[in-house]
Write a structure and sequence with these properties.
About 35% of the residues lie in helices and about 15% in strands. Among the domains are: about 15-80 and about 230-360, Fumarate Reductase Iron-sulfur Protein, Chain B, domain 2 (Orthogonal Bundle), CATH 1.10.1060; about 95-185, no CATH class; about 375-415 and about 480-505 and about 740-815, Rossmann fold, CATH 3.40.50; about 835-935, Elongation Factor Tu (Ef-tu), domain 3 (Beta Barrel); about 940-1055, Rossmann fold, CATH 3.40.50. It is of the alpha/beta class. α28 links the parallel β12 (about 640-645) and β13. The protein has a seven-stranded mixed sheet, with helices on both faces. Strands 7-6-5-8-24-23 form a six-stranded mixed sheet, with helices on both faces. A six-stranded antiparallel barrel has the order 25-26-31-30-27-32. The two termini are about 35 Å apart. It contains 39 helices and 41 strands.
Length: about 1150
């Protein structure tokens, strides 16, 4: 961060708030003011910081509550917002009348009233209107009037009676639904029925027994704007006043957890009727205290109280976590909606002038903390944090606060922030808020970015991103794969002292059902990531994500819930975007030409999309004419809708147990729910596409779910959300790095003599939880946090808590390590290392008709690249031009490495599809994302004879691989199949990659043969070509064959699925006699890929088969191992996977051609 800005906030310079020295001076100023105002509190604060005061829990609360208003006053004074804070306080205190009215009249007097109801409601309502003045805010006016009556209950007895009757008419006789439904004062807690937390109604005559929400609760959703705008101030204050502030008697179980025995803190936590352990807030947040401050109108003080234990509070709260609610003292009736209050506390401060800067200040300077109340000076310690999800960004915060130089990396693309956000103060939060429907998809936040939907405001992530990006001792880098771009050994070599692994969950589970992973079937993670990271849902995006209706989502967790709602909304966006682009293309090209490029199946799909797109347009027009929001639900239902299925009962599902409110909200969007449904088979149509889900429908008897009959659910899309495991991919790649305990790293604690394994703790508040892995090399250790850790997996707030609890252990460990006497203190260490992790275009050659050659300067990627590996190439959304309403961005592209030169990686992009056209527009210096290397390096062997069969795609790999094979002492025979001479690229290099080449053209013209040992033929059938080679029937060639097929030890096939199929079949049959027994054949599996991080999204999942029986054995992540034994590959499945987005890709290609034609010629 360049912190040279001279811009000021009132009398505070920007540097003051963003440097350690500036914050320490700011703190000294506060202490001085506090000493003048309250010398006793000042002494207590100093003693508290020096840990000389042994407060009881109640005394600590009292101390914090006394101190917090002083912090607020000091900030308001220094930010020159005293008038704003006073006005905000007045707004809150004005609301108190509503809560007095609710408590005294609605909850007490109306319930106790036993008199006659002798006055009609209309007469009472008219009378009441005459008593009040404010008709704009009638609830407040009525409340203030009611409170005034309490000043003399005898004098106003008749008026109190009238008002009480008016209330009873509304509550019991439903006399005024607008009041009973909308006034906070009439919102009363309901009793909890744990077995019926989600109201549902049956769908009559449904063969699967699907259920739905009551139609009157349906909401209209349009697109991907924020769907939940949270409570307003009055609603929030209703929850604040419902709280009974249990901290004053050690009863704040929302924070500390609900004890099994209140008199015995060591008795453990209570378990609720759903079997959930009531641990309370994993962070131990001072909830009750913050509510009390909020009640009294202290917005900033309340925020300081929350940020004391939860500096990452933008990433928690409403629609994220509810551990606190579950442990609320109210166990038999609705709990206090603590997450709403927490988020309301944050947003109310953000609405203030300089609200963003106040939040950013309070997470770095917070006198309420006993530790980390200020950041430390640089301690010259270096820590690598792997992952920038909730656990990773929280660990980055705490370690940087402790003075460490922190480099935090993530495999996702990380869009850079606008420079002014890093170098100038932000006056108004509204200036940085983006609509979720068209915001830049930053990539920051990991699962919080791609896994959580627009039910939650992702603008909050930007606050945390800005905070970390401004710090001089923090470096944030995206597109970095741990185990590829950067290894453990690399980290130690580069000078890091510790690694903290926070790379979340991975390895989504595949359901063992017939035709699993058929075309139209996806992993839920794959869908959500494509939707929310590549930007498929945005009108200006070129990302491809093709889905059809009806759809079925399999799973009972929150991922399944999110997938169902987003799939429904995305379908509307997809057909709308298809129609818009088609209309332009039809005018330009004509219908016949567009449809001519499609087979019969995709012509039918396009017709359906256009028909549905027109229906959407019609509904939009109707809604606009009626001045109302469009209602797409009838259309979605007409087209089959989205059904969520779970193998057991709804109230046994993980989503119900953890956060039933999300199910309620999803069903209000019109989702169907089917309980007791076990998938058996994905039914396919004549084209091999999913057409239905055959399932076993079970009935519950005596608490057991027993199979009764089979039914078929119509389904053109099936999404699987069957759970995931901790991401331990590094151990799979570098076996022996870590000891495992089942599917996760074995937890360890650290001693001066080494690490010691411990059992997995019962819950996230256990004293000993084992923050370290087994890794131990000299004085180096590796910790693991978040979803990777078995104690903290499964929720955002637990991930954050894992970092809060682990960072002190890391600091303790670092303090024990001797300082390296040869290490220079580099204040710019993180920024310098970031450059080594980054990628920029070094040079680009677009002159070849077949490929775009690009050299990318990416030092760490180049260092670790091995022949046969590949990369995920992306361009930044932020820097991409928008032409004709289209962002010319490469959403993602799998591209093979074609060699390295120093710090540069060579890439060859074939000229087909949209991405190569966009790549042509790049120029030297342009930043890129080059995630990798990934995939498995080729097994080179030694002194073998290797036969390579490749076409235009495989030749890019061969340029580097062939050289490596020959350098290892192997002989290489290369069958190179191209359409014609013009399609061959870098022929000189290809000749150097093989001892002998057989050039095969698939058209009439022969490819020039320049070496005596090479041959050239016209042959489109590779099997016949190999036979001709064996029999000496080649029609060209200047010398006899040098390499005999009988000498071949290894066959590598890098080509189309059709080529792989032909070779797989023929090597068992007519080609088998041509080779020696036991010749090993591998095929490069060109699965569709997205994350390419070896088991996160699951798009690359590919079935393997038993060569003897042809039956499926297991599904593998082909981005982890792209070169597989040819006989193991289920090539029918591969072909189906490759065709998932066929129509979308075709239409995108046409659209990109149209858009690029509108660009001015590229300057040479």
């Amino acid at each position: 961060m360049n912190s040279s800005s001279s811009e000021k906030i009132a009398d505070i310079s920007f540097d003051t708030l963003n440097t350690v020295l500036g914050l320490k001076k700011f703190d000294q100023k506060f202490l001085s003011v506090l000493a003048d105002q309250d010398s006793s509190l000042h002494r207590n604060l100093l003693s508290y910081r020096q840990q000389k005061t042994n407060f009881t829990a109640i005394e600590l609360s009292e101390f914090l509550l006394a101190l917090a208003p002083h912090i607020e006053a000091f900030i308001a004074l220094n930010f020159d917002i005293e008038n704003e804070t006073k006005a905000s306080c007045k707004r809150i205190t004005n609301e108190k009348a509503i809560h007095v009215f609710k408590k005294q009249f609605i909850q007490r007097r109306s319930r106790r009233y036993r008199g006659e109801m002798d006055i009609p409601y209309t007469e009472l309502d008219l009378w009441l209107s005459q008593q009040i003045n404010d008709i704009e805010d009638r609830e407040l006016a009525v409340s203030q009037y009611a409170v005034s009556l309490l000043e003399d209950t005898e004098k106003f007895a008749e008026d109190i009676k009238r008002l009480t009757q008016w209330i009873i008419h509304i509550r019991k006789n439903n006399a005024a639904a607008n009041i009973s439904e909308n006034w906070i004062s009439f919102k009363l807690p309901a009793l909890i029925d744990y077995a019926q937390l989600v109201p549902l109604e049956d769908i009559s005559n449904d063969p699967v027994g699907r259920r739905q929400a009551k139609p009157e609760t349906y909401v209209r959703r349009d697109g991907f704007c924020l769907t939940d705008h949270r409570m307003n101030l009055r609603q929030t204050m209703g929850e604040v006043n419902y709280c009974i502030y249990c901290h004053d008697h050690d009863g704040d179980f929302c924070s500390r957890g609900f004890p099994e025995n209140k008199k015995d803190p060591g008795s453990g936590f209570r378990v609720n009727p759903l079997g959930e352990t009531l641990t309370g807030c994993p962070l131990g947040q001072k909830i009750s205290e913050s509510h009390l401050l909020k009640r009294d109108g202290h917005d900033i003080a309340a925020l300081a109280m929350v940020a004391r234990d939860n500096p990452m509070l933008p990433a928690t709260g409403h629609r994220i976590c509810n551990d606190c609610m579950k442990a609320c003292i109210y166990q038999k009736q609705d709990p206090v909606n603590i997450p709403e209050v927490e988020t309301g506390i944050l947003t109310d401060v953000l609405k203030l002038t300089w609200g963003v800067e106040i939040y950013l200040l309070l997470i770095r300077w917070n006198p309420l903390r006993q530790e980390q109340y200020l950041p430390e000076y640089n301690n010259n310690r270096r820590v690598l944090v792997v992952g920038l999800g909730p656990a990773g960004f929280t660990m980055t915060h705490h370690l940087s606060m402790a003075g460490c130089n922190v480099t935090s990396v993530d495999g996702l693309k990380l869009e850079p922030l606008d420079e002014h956000l890093l170098t100038s103060p932000i006056r108004h939060y509204s200036s940085i808020v983006e609509s979720l429907d068209d915001r830049i998809l930053s990539g920051f936040g990991g699962v919080a970015e791609y896994g959580i939907t627009v039910r939650w405001d992702k603008n909050f992530l930007k606050l945390i991103y800005i905070s970390l990006a401004r710090r001089e001792n923090v470096g944030l880098s995206g597109g970095v794969r741990f185990g590829g771009t950067l290894t453990i050994d690399d980290a130690w070599y580069e000078g890091f002292d510790h690694i903290s692994i926070a790379n979340g969950a991975g390895l989504p589970k595949v359901i063992p059902m017939i035709n699993s992973l058929a075309r139209g079937m996806r992993q839920a993670n794959d869908f959500l990531m494509a939707l929310q990271l590549t930007g498929a849902a945005k009108f200006d995006s070129l990302a491809n994500l093709q889905v059809r209706l009806p759809a079925v989502v399999i799973g009972g967790g929150l991922t399944a819930i999110d997938t169902a709602t987003e799939l429904q909304s995305y379908y509307i966006r997809q057909v709308e975007k298809t129609l818009i682009r088609y209309t332009v293309l039809e005018e330009k090209m004509g219908r016949e030409k567009i449809f001519a490029g499609l087979d019969e199946e995709n012509q039918g799909i396009l017709e359906t999309f256009l028909e549905h797109g027109n229906a959407v347009a019609t509904e939009r027009k109707r809604a606009a004419d009626c001045n109302e929001e469009p209602n797409f639900l009838p259309l979605l239902r007409q087209w089959g809708g989205v059904t969520l299925t779970y193998r057991r009962g709804l109230n046994e599902s993980p989503a119900y147990l953890r956060n039933h409110d999300e199910i309620v909200k999803a069903l209000q969007e019109g989702i169907f729910y089917a309980e007791g449904v076990e998938p058996v088979e994905a039914m396919l149509d004549e084209y091999g596409h999913v057409a239905g889900l055959r399932c076993r429908v079970k009935q519950q008897r005596d608490g057991l779910w027993l199979a009764s009959e089979e039914q078929i659910l119509p389904a053109r899309a099936i999404m699987v959300a069957a759970g995931a495991s901790p991401n331990t991919v590094y151990e799979n790649e570098y076996t022996g790095s870590f000891k495992m305990d089942g599917n996760h790293f074995m937890p360890h604690i650290c001693h001066p003599s080494g690490v010691q394994p411990v059992a997995v703790a019962d819950n996230c508040k256990a004293d000993e939880f084992g923050p370290f892995t087994s890794y131990s090399y000299q004085d180096k250790r590796i910790s693991f946090i978040g979803d990777t850790h078995p104690v903290f997996h499964g929720s955002v707030v637990k991930a954050i808590a894992s970092s809060l609890r682990t960072y002190p252990e890391i600091i303790k460990l670092l303090d024990q390590q001797p300082e390296d006497p040869y290490r220079k203190k580099m204040d710019n260490f993180t920024s310098e290392f970031q450059k080594r992790l980054s990628a920029t275009v070094d040079r680009i050659d677009t002159t070849h008709p077949a490929v775009v050659e690009m050299w990318v300067r990416a030092p760490m990627a180049a260092k670790n690249f091995q022949p046969g590996q590949f990369f995920r190439l992306q361009t930044f959304e932020k820097f991409s031009r928008v032409v004709a309403g289209t962002r010319l961005q490469i959403p993602l592209q799998t591209v093979s490495g074609a060699g390295v030169d120093g710090d540069c990686v060579r890439l060859l992009l074939l000229r087909f599809g949209a991405n190569a056209r966009i790549a042509e527009q790049l120029k030297p210096g342009d930043p890129l994302v080059l995630m990798g290397p990934t995939g498995s390096p080729a097994k080179l062997g030694h002194q073998r004879t290797v036969m390579v069969i490749a076409g235009a795609w495989g030749a890019a790999v061969m340029i580097d691989l062939g050289r490596a094979l020959r350098a290892a002492g192997n002989r290489v025979l290369f069958f190179a199949s191209f359409r014609c001479q013009d399609d061959i690229y870098f022929k000189d290099e290809l000749e150097q990659c093989a001892d002998q080449i057989v050039w095969a053209s698939t058209t009439d013209s022969l490819i020039e043969c320049r070496r005596p040992q090479d041959s050239s033929v016209q042959q489109a059938n590779i099997i016949e070509l190999i036979k001709d080679y064996k029999n000496g029937n080649l029609t060209a060639g200047n010398e006899e064959n040098l390499i005999k097929l009988s000498d071949v030890d290894e066959i590598m096939i890098m080509g189309s699925t059709g080529l792989l199929k032909a070779m797989q079949r023929s090597l068992k049959d007519d080609l088998k006699p041509l080779f020696k027994d036991g010749v090993h054949a591998t095929g490069t599996v060109g699965s569709p890929m997205q994350c390419m991080m070896k088991g996160v999204c699951g798009q690359c999942l590919q079935w393997q088969i038993d060569p003897a029986t042809g039956k499926r054995t297991r599904a593998v992540f082909s981005c982890a191992n792209q070169d597989q034994p040819l006989s193991w590959i289920d090539l029918d499945n591969l072909g189906a996977r490759q065709a998932q987005n066929r129509l979308s890709e075709y239409m995108t290609g046409l659209w990109v051609n149209h858009v690029i034609e509108q660009l001015p010629p590229k300057k040479k």
